[in-house]
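Please check the following for our workbook:

***
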Amino acid sequence: MTETELIKRLAALETEHRDLDIAIRVLENSDGSNQLQVARLKKRKLNLRDQIAIIADYLTPDIIA
């Protein structure tokens, strides 16, 4: 993947991460909260966070001090 593609992928992952955060809050605040669904969304959110960190680390240049 090129750097431009990685930046686009990073933006898409960050957007999905924010959307999952909102969905989790809505489900947790609803009366008929489905705990299994919330757990699955949280697991997906953690997976996204890991992917975001990997791409961000790749895009961040190493600084030799």
In short: The chain has two helices and no strands.
